[in-house]
């Protein structure tokens, strides 16, 4: 049975494992990622008021994650705040079932209910599968971050 719910502190061990799986999946796109890297402050994501951190369960097992966080926008933009989407991850055996799309829809609705109309996320430019999934939901490419390693 499919269940979307808020992430809880007792989910932390599974969330840490999923975060490491995400980091390993993205490592080919960024060779500079540290061996012991972490991306998120999970405790803050679970407890901060302007954040919705969801997990997706199938038969009681967490198979997908994602959060939206209301953040202040850059001062030159028309909107004062935006929704930042992160930790968008679906375990490999559950991909292709539309879980990421359903999760994104729930996160975006939560943001809209709080007056947010603009949403951002980050994705590696080489991650064509993820880019296509986000484009299907309506995202378009915005800024490309460039790097130089000497």
Automatic annotation (TrEMBL):
SUPFAM superfamilies assigned: Acyl-CoA N-acyltransferases (Nat) (SSF55729)
CDD domains: NAT_SF
Gene Ontology MF terms in the entry: acyltransferase activity, transferring groups other than amino-acyl groups
Source organism superkingdom: Bacteria
Keyword set, alphabetical order: Acyltransferase, Transferase
Keyword Transferase: yes
Pfam families: Acetyltransf_1
InterPro entries hit by this protein: Acyl_CoA_acyltransferase, Bact_Acetyltransf, GNAT_dom
Residue ranges constituting the N-acetyltransferase domain according to the UniProt record: 2-150
Record-given protein name: Acetyltransferase
Biological source species: Marinomonas primoryensis
